[in-house]
Design a protein that fits this description.
- The chain has a 22-stranded antiparallel beta barrel. A five-stranded mixed beta sheet has the order 5-11-12-9-10. A three-stranded antiparallel beta sheet has the order 6-7-8.
- The two termini are 22 Å apart.
- The chain is built from three helices and 42 strands.
- The longest helix has 6 residues.
- The radius of gyration is 27 Å and the shape is globular.
- The protein is mainly β and 728 residues long.
Length: 728
């Protein structure tokens, strides 16, 4: 019998009868006064899958089943880019900087979790772009309101990566592709059921030359004359990264469901080819980072009393990043170079950034009765940021520590019955920062002055759901959420990202209303969802860019932004043969700040009219669609072997890099409309024990752009080999 993604089943009771597990009973023989045996030819036990149970929560949540993605070559960020409301925007090829956006919120406004643990301090190499789908069982994408157990100060939603729970398995993959790309991943676990000893390992290594062609502006280095655009190869964009995550300990004991000691070790080495736009081209700058993160995890159900569960997680992260740009040379996109009168192609630096962070996450959940439960969560994090730039030995901020500490507490209550449930919660946010600010800039009295800030906020929200019909679910959620600025936003990255110690916390009122239809009829399964989103955000933190010959970026507060959006998705499957999916997102995000206040300016101060009032926020895609289809051919060449043909496409309507109402239409820079296609061919052997996948991305070789018109790779081919061994 075919098992859909929403239901799991055993054997049928009879050709004409199906029973739920609670309906399977023995019948009593009244004449003999005892239970008699009944012979049943077949039995079916129908239950909801984990993904389906998650989907039925009151929250606006999408669940991505990664078990169907293990043979694909996509990393996790590319997998998530097919979910409605999500855009993963890249600066280029493998290892390039990327921005994760959900309903217009991006960067640190969206939080990432690994098994419910915040990934804020995992380092730059242990991220979605470097992790293969094989690491996890599924991904939970919360849009807007979060469950209290996911502690943190997310403003626009969160992504929770749930790792695989297999007791004993080995999953090894290797892929090779265009532009000198190689990727290796190894995931496995061993558990001794007698002693409770367990060890779990996830490892990866990625390498790419990234020497794909781009259509870039050419400059004559001797005269400075603009020669127009040409197709050239990127020549200084090599990237490599590696990571190892290990956890070991005891499971299934009276004193602990699990007690695990672990560590994450990861590093990357990256050449920097360009700045924030392709107007800048570099041939020497590099950035390297290394992270070491020891951790302890503990979980116990029925702690002291029945129904009381405790989860604890603590970690200390050590992250060192080195940025080097010291060459006295100037390059153009042809790879030509001449000596320069000044050192540093973009920004003269040889800086090492040291970050040290403690993080503690505690979660208590108490089930009061069959209908009620309460949850308390607290997250504490404290970061020390210090920078040492050898090129500026007299720089006042060298080796001066800057600090950022957060305490975030959440308390939630849930009331649930058969057809409906309601969640209400409150959150308390506390932020302390200690940094230095440049005062009296451009004056003789210019100096750095220590600035300390303490901020506190109270947020709240609710989420509810009601089943109108067994297959039709209504959801609604609302919250007043806050997000405290992060270290990189306040302190900068020492290179392209500039510091801004004056950033204020963001506040957003978020509303989601949605309908979910999910129906299984014989061998057909249809799921459709439509949602309305509303976001009223004050002090919106937006990443801006200086469009100069050596562009830099910085985070700034935008007074007020309002989002009205609509997203819809449709999925259909037939037997275990056909799968078709489609989703679209429209999000109208506009500046709604009527006036602006100018402070600390040598030119003007006071209140003035905001000239961008009513205009769409720049550099944010507002209309995009995804589609995919696949067909499985079973028992090809041998019994148990499956051949899968797959296709997916991605459409993004054009959007401007600056406010659309400013400047002349002919001179405005924008990201053009894009429509890209990908195709794949996968062959599974021996019931999935072995597999080979061939993938072609950007099938029609389109010119694709995301961030500030930084071009992404053209047509590329990749092949992936996989070995999977499992022992139950």
């Amino acid at each position: 019998m075919m098992l859909s993604s929403q239901m799991v089943a055993a054997k049928t009771v009879s050709p004409s009868t199906k029973l739920n597990s609670e309906d399977i009973t023995a019948s009593k023989d009244s004449s003999k006064g005892y239970f008699s045996e009944q012979n049943l030819d077949n039995v079916v036990v129908i239950a909801k899958s984990k993904a389906r149970k998650l989907q039925e929560q009151a929250y606006a949540v999408s669940v991505v089943d990664l078990s169907k993605q293990y043979t694909t070559i996509k990393p996790l960020d590319k997998v998530l880019n097919t979910v409605s409301s999500i855009r993963v925007r890249e600066d280029g090829g493998v290892g390039s900087n990327y921005t994760f956006s959900m309903n217009g919120f991006s960067g640190n406004q969206v939080k990432f979790f690994l098994d419910g643990i915040p990934m804020d301090n995992f380092g730059s190499s242990f991220n979605l772009a470097n992790l293969s789908a094989n690491i996890a069982e599924h991904i939970e994408v919360f849009k807007g309101v979060l469950p209290v157990y996911l502690g943190g100060d997310a403003l626009g939603g969160a992504v929770n990566i749930v790792t695989r729970k297999n007791a004993n398995y080995l999953d090894a993959t290797y892929s090779i592709g265009s532009f000198g790309t190689h990727k290796v991943s190894l995931n496995g676990a061993y558990t001794n059921t007698n002693t409770g000893f367990t060890i779990r390992t996830n490892a990866f290594y990625n390498y790419s030359k990234n020497n794909f062609k781009v259509y870039a502006p050419i400059v004559d280095l001797n005269t400075g004359e603009q020669l127009g655009d040409e197709w050239v190869k990127r020549f200084h964009d090599q990237y490599q990264s590696g990571g190892l995550k290990v956890e070991s300990g005891i499971i299934g004991k009276s004193w602990a469901d699990y007690f695990l000691v672990g560590a994450i070790l990861s590093a990357n080495d990256k050449n920097i080819q360009t700045g924030a736009t392709m107007d800048a081209v570099y041939g020497k700058p590099t950035t390297k980072s290394i992270s070491f993160i020891p951790s302890i995890r503990y979980h116990k159900t029925n702690l002291f009393i029945p129904g009381l569960d405790l989860s604890l997680y603590t970690t200390y992260s050590i992250v060192n990043t080195n940025n080097v740009d010291t060459a006295a040379v100037t390059y153009n996109w042809r790879g030509e170079s001449i000596a320069s009168n000044s050192r540093g192609e973009g920004y003269l630096t040889n800086a090492t950034i040291h970050e040290r962070q403690w993080q503690v996450n505690a979660n208590l959940n108490y089930v009061i009765d069959d209908h009620q439960s309460i949850t308390f969560n607290h997250v504490f994090s404290s970061m020390r940021h210090k920078q040492d730039d050898k090129e500026y030995p007299d720089y006042a901020m060298n080796n001066i520590s800057q600090y950022l500490t957060k305490n975030i507490s959440g308390l939630g209550y849930q009331l649930r019955y058969d057809r409906w449930n309601v969640n209400v919660f409150g959150k308390a946010y506390f932020l302390h920062t200690s940094t230095h600010k440049l005062m009296d800039q451009f004056l003789e009295t210019e100096h750095y002055e220590q600035v300390k800030n303490n901020k506190s906020k109270i947020g709240y929200g609710t989420a509810a759901t009601y089943f109108i019909l067994p297959s039709l679910q209504l959801k609604a959620s609302f919250e007043q959420a806050y997000r405290m600025p992060e270290a990189v936003e306040i302190f900068g990255d020492g290179f392209i990202q500039k510091a801004n110690p004056d950033l204020r916390p963001e506040i957003s009122r978020n509303l989601n209303i949605g309908l979910l239809f999910d129906q299984q009829i014989d061998e057909h399964h249809l799921m459709a969802e439509v949602s309305y989103i509303y976001r009223n955000t004050k002090d919106f933190i937006l990443k801006g860019v200086s469009l100069t010959s050596d562009p830099t970026t910085s985070y700034e507060n935008i007074g007020k932004a309002i989002t009205n959006g609509l997203e819809a998705s449709l999925q259909y499957s037939w037997r275990n043969n056909l799968n078709v999916g489609f989703n679209l997102t429209y999000q109208d995000i506009k500046d709604r700040q009527k006036t602006e206040t100018v402070d600390n300016s040598y030119v003007d101060t006071g209140v003035s009219e905001n000239v961008t009032y009513g205009q769409r926020m720049p550099n944010i895609p507002y209309f995009f669609m995804n589609g995919d289809a696949s067909w499985n051919f079973h028992n090809i060449l041998a019994k148990g072997n499956t051949l899968t043909l797959g296709y997916n496409c991605d459409y993004i309507y054009k959007y401007y890099l600056s406010f659309p109402g400013l400047g002349r239409p002919t001179s405005k820079k924008y990201i053009p409309t894009q429509f890209s296609h990908n195709a794949s061919l996968t062959y599974l052997m021996n019931e999935g024990k072995y597999s080979v996948s061939l993938e072609c991305t950007n099938l029609t070789d389109e010119k694709l752009y995301d961030n500030y018109r930084l071009q992404k790779p053209g047509r590329a081919f990749n092949i992936k080999f996989r070995l999977f061994l499992s022992k139950m």
